[in-house]
Write a structure and sequence with these properties.
By secondary structure, the protein is of the alpha+beta class. It has 10 helices and 18 strands. It has 3 domains: about 10-35 and about 220-335, Outer membrane lipoprotein wza domain like (Outer membrane lipoprotein wza fold like, Roll); about 40-50 and about 135-215, Outer membrane lipoprotein wza domain like (Outer membrane lipoprotein wza fold like, Roll); about 50-135, wza like fold. It has helices at about 10-15, 25-35, 40-45, 65-70, 105-120, 160-165, 190-195, 245-250, 290-295, 310-345; strands at about 15-20, 60-65, 85, 90-95, 100, 125-135, 140-145, 150, 180-185, 185-190, 210-215, 220-225, 235, 240-245, 260-270, 280-285, 300, 305-310. It comes from Luteibacter pinisoli. Belongs to the BexD/CtrA/VexA family.
């Protein structure tokens, strides 16, 4: 047996791992058993209704043909200067109307309420209301976004994809496979990468005030490439998975002078070896057909990819380790010879 390879006898003896060849049949079985990406029905069931006014919102109230009510700060001022701020208690003040409870009302409901109260002073008042500042309903953003500023819910519904797009994803640090949406004391874990490759990718999630979106960092989303590759390293990735070909490619590929093409292993489950045997997937990379198989085999976070050395490499390393020892022995023998010779003189 080549010293760079494993065999079934080793597996049976230690009972710590099982050796599984990477074949087209294995890849087909993995794809068949994979859970399709999907959205929680509770998320897709939510549909936003008309916007409801809340504390912190600023309203611009127009009463046609009555500029003294519409623009009390003067028509030359910006629209925001003539806005009516909804106070923390949910009320606002308007001339001739007085204090009015605005929180929880839609724009149309508040328009009707103000119109009814103004009829005591103005014949058939024509009232229009627009929101010039949204502040009562926000979605907080956190994690590996380039912009984590809160995003306001407005009269136009805000979707998850819009919020993520506006926040910007840090392509080097983000992990798109486990985005966390917190709503009403519950967490929803979303695989945005997988959803984008399915039919459900076009089905978006509407957000509502109080939602929180966290995009995790990919510092724990790594595979480790060791052995006879040009650049052994830990590789972070932001997507659902990474193919074996991609992982080896990022490491510079196999070392052509020292690697064993039949000894490419993917070691999975080493953290739970005390409870269950680890799986060691072996790829025979000695034929061109292996490249097509490796391109379809997905590695997972925590996997260790190991490329074993060729037989001649192991022999050369053994010789190189002996050389320092042989030098010491030779030096010791020479020294002893010189001592013996000097004693005879």
């Amino acid at each position: 047996m080549n010293t760079g390879e494993l065999n079934d006898k080793e597996s049976a003896a230690g009972a710590r791992y099982q050796l599984v060849p990477i074949t087209p049949k294995l890849i087909a079985m993995d794809k068949a058993s994979a859970t399709p990406a999907g959205l929680d029905p509770e998320l897709t069931a939510y549909k936003p209704d008309d916007y409801h006014i809340g504390p912190g919102d600023s309203l611009y109230i127009t009463v046609w043909e009555h500029p003294e009510l519409t623009s009390p700060a003067g028509s030359q001022q910006q629209t925001a200067a003539n806005g009516r701020l909804v106070r923390p208690d949910g009320t606002l003040f308007y001339p001739y109307v007085g204090q009015i409870k605005a929180t929880g009302l839609t724009i149309e409901q508040l328009r009707v309420e103000i119109s009814d109260r103004l009829t005591k002073y103005i014949a058939k008042p024509q009232v229009d209301i627009s929101i010039v500042g949204f502040a009562s309903q926000r979605v907080t953003m956190g994690g590996a976004f380039t912009n984590t500023s809160p995003q306001n819910i407005t009269v136009a519904p805000l979707t998850l994809s819009q919020a993520v797009g506006a926040a910007g994803v840090n392509a080097q640090l983000a992990d798109l496979s486990n985005v966390v949406l917190r709503r009403d004391n519950r967490e929803y874990h979303l695989n945005l990468d997988a959803l984008s490759h399915t039919l459900q990718g076009g089905q978006d999630v509407y957000l509502k005030g109080g939602d929180s979106i966290y995009l995790p960092y990919n510092d724990n989303h790594e595979v480790y490439v060791l052995g006879e590759v040009l650049r052994p390293q830990a590789i972070s990735f932001k997507t659902t998975d990474l193919s074996l070909t991609q992982a080896l490619g990022r490491s510079g590929g196999l070392n052509q002078t020292s690697s064993n093409g039949k000894a490419v292993y993917v070691i999975r489950g080493v953290e739970n070896m005390e409870k269950a045997p680890a799986s060691i997937f072996q790829l025979d990379n000695s034929s061109p057909a292996a490249f097509a198989v490796a391109a379809q085999f997905a590695v997972k976070p925590g996997d260790v990819i190991y490329v074993g050395p060729a037989g001649i490499t192991r022999w050369n390393r053994f010789i190189s380790q002996l050389l320092p020892l042989s030098g010491l022995i030779n030096n010791a023998a020479t020294a002893q010879y010189n001592l013996d010779r000097d004693s005879q003189l």
